[in-house]
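Give me the fold.
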Amino acid sequence: MHCIVKWTETQNAARPQCPLCRQEWKYAPG
């Protein structure tokens, strides 16, 4: 999970996308 969190930190797009599935990124609760 750390690498994905790190990846999201590098994204500056208004609508960042999941690097794995290319879908619109949604943060899981918790």
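The first helix runs from residue 2 to 9.
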